[in-house]
Amino acid sequence: MDYLLSGVIGYLLGSVSCGLLLVKLICGIDIRDYGSHNIGATNVFRTVGARMASFVLLGDLLKGVLALYLVNHYVSSDLTVLILCATCAILGHSFSWMCGFKGGKGVATGLGILLYFMPEVAVFALTIWLATVFVTRYVSLGSILAALAAPFSAWYLGYDGRLVAFVGLCAAVVVARHYQNMIRLKNGTESKIRQGHWKK
């Protein structure tokens, strides 16, 4: 029962599409109709600007933290149960029932989960992401490098093998979901990050 409940909590909270809900509520548009058609903070930044993107990023990050907090305090503190919850939260974000079982790439929600499980790894990965985006202006490249760095830093810092394996699997998924971005990076056609300015 603990596994089932943790999975349901993780998926339902992960499925809350902050990009879809906040942009539609405040700007009156469906973010899926613009830019890359993605619900994540990057497309929100390019379409309606930094302020809205920061809210979406924070919301996507916190829903992973909230799911783990609820399961840890009200269901079970067993690490395997928590990892299942985290997995389902990322799946919920990536395959949200609110978006017809489509969604984002799970980077922000994954960062929230890292913050909950391994704050040092999260800070390290975020630093790599920020440095890469600042230098290259490619969000996708920053996300890929940060994802790849996370399991190695988790292993180096001596975290539980189950957490290292979980982070490694998440990194593989993030990289796989950036496959088209990698092709565009190789071909020199990937879009650099630029802030949008939405006007009704």
Automatic annotation (TrEMBL):
A Gene Ontology cellular-component term: plasma membrane
A biological process term (GO) from this entry: phospholipid biosynthetic process
InterPro entries in UniProt: G3P_acylTferase_PlsY (IPR003811)
Cellular localization per UniProt: Cell membrane
Reactions performed catalytically: an acyl phosphate + sn-glycerol 3-phosphate = a 1-acyl-sn-glycero-3-phosphate + phosphate
Gene Ontology molecular function, alphabetical: acyl-phosphate glycerol-3-phosphate acyltransferase activity
Membrane topology: Multi-pass membrane protein
Keyword Membrane attached: yes
Record's keyword annotation contains Acyltransferase: yes
Keywords for the protein's UniProt record, in alphabetical order: Acyltransferase, Cell membrane, Lipid biosynthesis, Lipid metabolism, Membrane, Phospholipid biosynthesis, Phospholipid metabolism, Transferase, Transmembrane, Transmembrane helix
Annotated pathway: Lipid metabolism; phospholipid metabolism
A Pfam short name: G3P_acyltransf
Membrane-spanning segments: 52-72, 79-98, 110-131, 163-179
EC number(s) reported in the record: 2.3.1.275
Subunit comment: Probably interacts with PlsX.
Function: Catalyzes the transfer of an acyl group from acyl-phosphate (acyl-PO(4)) to glycerol-3-phosphate (G3P) to form lysophosphatidic acid (LPA). This enzyme utilizes acyl-phosphate as fatty acyl donor, but not acyl-CoA or acyl-ACP.
Family stated for the protein in its record: Belongs to the PlsY family.
Protein name: Glycerol-3-phosphate acyltransferase
